[in-house]
Amino acid sequence: MPTLKERLYDEWALKAELTQDGVSVHPEVLRRIALGSAAQETVNCLFSYNRDLAAEIDVPPYFILPHGLIALFHVDRRSDWRLEHDGRGFFVVDSDGRAVPVRFPERPGYYARQTSDGTPMRTVAVHNSDDVIFVAYSNECSLQATSRDCLFCNINATARKYGDVQGVKWKYPRQIGETVAAAYAEGARHLTISGGFVPERREVEYYLDVADEIRAATGLDDFNGTACIGAPRDLDVIAKYREAGYRTLAINIEVWDEHFFRAYCPGKEQECGGRDHWVRALEHAVGVFGRGRVRSNMVGGLESKATTLEGIEILSRKGVVAMSPGWIPNPGSALEGHRSPEPAWHLDVARKTYQIYRQVGFTFEQVYDATAVPQTLVHDLYRIEEERLPVFAEERAKEAVAA
After folding, report:
1. Hey, CA dihedral for 25, 26, 32, 36, is it positive or negative?
2. How far apart are CA 161 and CA 158, in angstroms?
3. Among residues 263, 261, 241, 243, which one has the least CA distance to residue 194?
4. Where in this chain does the record put each Radical SAM core domain (predicted)?
5. How far is it, in rounded angstroms, from Cα 75 to Cα 305?
6. What domains can be seen in the chain, in order of their start residue?
7. How do residues 113-146 score in pLDDT, each as one tens digit?
8. Which of 169 and 201 is assigned the larger pLDDT?
């Protein structure tokens, strides 16, 4: 019989497949999930991943697989996987008839609440599992006005499709402070603030106002927040984020190769000093926040595996939590219709990233604090190898009873 870790690694591979390929689903099956009441619904802020789905149809944010791993839920009618309900529970079923039971997350209590100005809190901060919340203060990017959007990004398409339907709009600092306080009262313990591209001076002033409101509402000087920003031309402003109370900083370089950076991120190239300046900003940020407290994402699959891993290793050795979550070609982006590498490609990048992290000494807690979504394939390797999942305790309890 396979060991628990072997079963978890099988589930890990399944997660990669479901995350990359999505599922097909009939609207009637979705209605059985009780989304928006007992079960958590997706609030489309920043990015959306669902293809061939009307904006009015609710979907869950993720699957919970049998041993506790979590996979992103997104609808794609081309997928070999489909979601079914047998009258008692939910299953994902592939074209060969393989069926895997799945569950969905409970709706957080604060999703039913409003801020003092009447804004639904669920549109202010979404719950990303594992006590992590995410605030997208702006659901659109100013680079659209100059046709210099990042080619892989659909933030503006998401705003057009879901903004009015789901009431997702600009977030004000007080709204964020009140919502974070409500989420933290229910057990949340990390948040990321992010959004579309805005002018540098406006960005830093806004983030400082948000930090003030969060501290006032929660009573916490250190609220374990990540500020996700563009690389500032004036590197001295980075210290202001640390002084304001953010524990970690994110400056996402998106791709490592300088020529790809110029092609994929024309706005970031022209507005933020180019790719080399982004690297300098990351190095400077580590000097301010400390090793393991600065994060930079690369879009996994936009460049070769060797180039991606080179960037991850170089940045990690500089103290940056650099990772490359698998690219899901976003509907409405300039690269819609392109294909991400096969799941095995992403699994291999995750394994090698985890090995690099262990070599440089990054702990799970550092990776957790630095990232907006605590359910990447790399997070899972920590959870499996360090036996952090509840299923390990359950297995030990069964063995104790049997003995």
Report:
1. positive
2. 5
3. 241
4. 127-365
5. 27
6. 4-102 (no CATH), 114-385 (3.20.20.70)
7. 999 999 999 999 999 999 999 999 988 888 877 7
8. 169
Residue 3 CB partners (closer than 8 Å, separation 6+): none
Between CA 386 and CA 227 the distance in angstroms is 28
DSSP 314: H
C-alpha closest to that of 18 among 73, 68, 93? 73
Can you name the residues that pair with 326 across neighbouring β-strands?
A: 300
Report how far residue 102's alpha carbon sits from residue 89's, in angstroms, rounded to the nearest whole number: 8
Place of tokens 């699994």: 347
- How far is the C-alpha of 368 from the C-alpha of 357, rounded, in Å? 13
Q: In 3D, which of 89, 83, 64, 40 has the Cα closest to residue 391? A: 64
Amino acid letter, 46:
L
Q: Residue for token digits 């059985």?
A: 32
pLDDT tens-place string over residues 348-390: 999 999 999 999 999 999 999 999 999 999 999 999 999 999 9
Read off the amino acid at residue 192: T
Helix (H/G/I), strand (E/B), else coil: 216:
helix
Cα three-residue angle 60-61-67, rounded to 5 degrees = 95
**Which residue from 104, 33, 12 is spatially nearest to 62, judged by alpha carbons?**
104
Q: pLDDT averaged over the chain? A: 94
Residue-wise pLDDT for 74-108, tens only, equals: 999 999 999 999 999 999 999 999 999 999 999 99
CA gap 170, 28 in Å, rounded = 33
Q: Which two tokens stand for residue 36?
A: 């928006």
Spatial distance between the Cα atoms of 49 and 351, rounded to a whole number of angstroms? 25
Instruction: Report CA-CA distances (Å) from 61 to 49, 129, 159, 221.
Output: 10, 9, 18, 30
